[in-house]
# Entry
Amino acid sequence: MTDIAIIVLAAGKGTRMKSDLPKVLHRAAGRSLLGHVLHAARELEPREAVVVVGPDMEAVSREAQWVFPDARKAVQVERLGTGHAVSMARDALQDFSGTVLILYGDVPLVATESLRKLAGLVGAGMALLGFEAANPHGYGRLVQDASGHVVKIREELDASPAERAIRLCNSGIMAIDSALLWSLLPKLGNANAKGEYYLTDLVELAAAAGAACRLATCAEQEVAGVNDRIQLAAIESALQQTYRRRHMLNGATLVAPETVFFSADTVIGQDVVIEPNVVFGPGVEIGGGVEILAFSHIEGARVAVGARIGPYARLRPGADIGEEVHIGNFVEVKKAAIGKGAKANHLTYIGDARVGARTNVGAGTITCNYDGFEKHLTDIGENVFVGSNTAFVAPVSVGDGASIAAGSVITRNVPPDALAMTRAELELREGWAKRYRDMKAARKAERNK
Ligand code: UD1
Ligand code: MG
# Structure
């Protein structure tokens, strides 16, 4: 197979996003728009990846390196058009020969299969990804010859009325032989309505050089771009529909799928039941048979087989929930490993901790992990009984089989099988409450006479 290099255009500022963040770093389903594009392309195992960014967009190339550690950036200082943007990548690709796949950083739904199809059509020429637009306004129109090859792309502003009537449009995504690309790019001019160097003019130049431009097509929704936050929400919605279907087809029950939100990388095992209103942030892995009850929020966490989470549970990054563990309502777990069969059923914070197997954590237990400057570890052994309303002042450890009396503040290590209890002595005054009530009632009656 021919080698592939990708160029992702991402120099646009994204003015309509009204944001300090470069447009392609906005997220949908927990992944940046750029990340979605790069993940789709990654399946084709490209040898090189270049991201064309504007000045001061260091964060964009760093984001690309999450997916392609060797990704290179090319800076386009002045935004002189899509053709000019691609020419910025030339130095980075000077040793590459093969197929160059050109993608837009703000077109995140594009499917790997469409890219594969496109790359397969290039040969010694080029290929475009086109679509039938419901409303072609604003898109470049594809003009074909009798054999179906594309002979030119006409941008909306430069199009004749007859060309504007064409509904077959340019997605902007194209694949082209590298030698052809670099030989044609310097020939692009900017004598057009926008005064830009149009990448789309490559099609006519290629035809003049005797190279065919083939056409692959996809659904319009797949090449939807993001220009504002309304379109960003539409992308989010489309992704969620895809993920909900995928997880259900893989054997998860979603009681109310439209209320469950996944991240692009969420992994869900078989026979998992997910109740309504559950949100999965990035980095979650759920084992088989797990139940996730309503209104739980889970991010950066791993949940092992047969555990039960929620309702109203919060698992934060580094939560590692063991098999058959129960994490109940209003329990928050962060950076903590909870051993097999342990339970924390109510109103608890477990952070920077280890909780051993079968340990029972009573209601209202708090690991006081932060001293105002640093985080400290709470290490609780196996088969420990933690009474309600215990505060563990970390760093502190509790040995296997120990018991902690309700209401204790644990500031020293507790040995195995010991009882730890901090408790002021209880004082009982027989009849006091009745005497107090009677006295108050009598005074009130006196005043109201
Ligand atoms: C482009 C296509 C049009 C296609 C449409 C699909 C051209 C001339 N036209 O038009 O045929 O139907 O996309 O949405 O290519 N960019 C840069 N640097 C630049 C200019 C653009 O990085 O100097 C990036 C943008 O950030 C964006 C992409 O290229 O991701 C497309 O640019 P945009 O200005 O939106 O092109 P359109 O006019 O929409
Ligand atoms: Mg556009």
